[in-house]
Amino acid sequence: xxxxxxxINRLVRMGLNVQAFFTVGILIIIIAxxxxxxxxxxxxAFIFSFxxxxxxxxxxxxxxxxxxxxxxxxxxxxxxxxxxxxIFLTEYTRESLFTKLIRFGVESLAGIPSILYGLFxxxxxxxxxxxxxxxxxxxxxxxxxxLPTIIRTSEEAIRAVPRQLRIVSYSLSASKWETIKKVVLxxxxxxxxxxxxxxxxxxxxxxAAIIFTMGSSLxxxxxVMDSGRTMAVHFYILAREGISMEKAYGTAxxxxxxxxxxxxxxxxxxxxxxxRYS
Amino acid sequence: xxxxxxxxxxxxxxGKAQVLKEITIAVHRNTITGFxxxxxxxxxxxxxxxNRMIDFENNVRIEGDAAIDGTSILDGSINPIELRRRVxxxxxxxIPLPRSIFENIAYGPKLKGxxxxxxxxxxxxxxxxxxxxxxxxxxxxxxxxxxxxxGQQQRLCLARTLALxxxxxxxxxxxxxxxxxxxxxxxxxxxELKSEYTIILVSNNTKQxxxxxxxxxxxxxxxxxxxxxxxxVFTTPAESKTEDYIQGKFG
Lengths: 278, 251
Hints:
The structure holds two protein chains of two kinds.
Chain A: H1 5-38, H2 44-48, E1 51-52, E2 57-58, H3 61-91, H4 97-111, H5 114-128, H6 135-159, H7 163-171, H8 176-205, H9 208-213, H10 231-240, H11 245-277
Antiparallel strand pairs in A: 1-2
Chain B: E1 3-14, E2 17-28, E3 32-36, H1 43-50, E4 60-68, E5 71-72, H2 80-86, E6 87-90, H3 101-112, H4 117-130, H5 134-137, H6 150-162, E7 168-172, H7 180-193, E8 198-202, H8 206-212, E9 215-220, E10 223-229, H9 230-235, H10 240-246
Parallel strand pairs in B: 3-8, 3-9, 6-7, 7-8
Antiparallel strand pairs in B: 1-2, 1-4, 4-5, 9-10
Helix pairs in contact in B: 3-4, 3-6, 4-6, 6-7
């Protein structure tokens, strides 16, 4: 028996709709619960004041600053390194055992659980290099963690730039580096930015690796050698140790809002970049 | 006649396949020379030797020589980037860079180190006028070049090449995707330009070659079958193969 293709078409469409709604639905439920539980504890003072009594009272200002410091510095370290690697892999090498090895390494790095990065960071940066629990140790660990994402997304974005654009650039007397700088990277920019945004998200949301390396001091980190606490870590400790669920949810709301803000900002920058180059 | 570009028993191999077989040709200064022949005849490969874009192909072997103004361009001491300022190229498919019309034209001059705004403006205007595009775009130089029509894009590519101030312009089937009106505009531009430049026009369109070129070369399977004044080639071809091709018996 042959089923009418139009009916199949409808069924498939319905199925896909349900799946899409399911995905978005879960997201909405999670955000709704967090907002429902956390929003009443949100206030200007909560964001801009220091925690008191281990976080039972007061605000979360230091952990907001700590989160921003960690994310920004990690991106600052990882982006040039990762982008450089991606450019090297795509533009300056031919497919060989060497590039396959690098790529395999990158993919393996991406698959390692964050707790192992934390352990490595603790043994190497904190103990061996005597950095102690510090912003610097956290940033370096985070840099290694987000490097694979930046390399992979940048590499794919660079690879997706049409060969003809490069050929045209060469034909107009551009050198290889000029072509990369003026044609390839601008065209790949949206993809590269996506990778950076994903990485910021990861840095903002990470806990395990951060507790091991940056520690969990409640003070405001004023130098890279100071210990500090990100919002995610603060949330984890408040909830895990039963200090204050209210404050934990309040922190979660700020965390979610800041991730949302970062994404909106990223879209804005991305659209600007696209509009400028197309 | 004054020779601008010459090749001497030029052979090109892609891997084991030989795509150019002992090509010896002398292209005259300030003329339009048409290269015609069915696909696979090697005419585009010959072009890519002259602008050294062949450097970007893998697995290439070149024997023999090619020269501009009597100086070899295959010599190791030649800087291909410098060479491509003297030899401009327009490709079959117009590919504007994803930036404004102005920035497309200014791309080459900026690479050469021209940063002064007024001289750039001068170059852009001059190049667009020579490519017969100025009147259509003069009010929107800052809009994206991707918004132009196909015919305009190809003239933009021509203007972009002219902005390099080259001595030679190579056009690889520049009108293959264009409508007759756009084609006529390109042809008009080329006819004006030949007093200043040496132009090689690769085309599958024999009528176009007959219309605007001074000399015509017919290539077939990597060999130069016939090369003479366009009048001679099209009225009394020496080879029957040429005659068959011009009459459209194969292609």
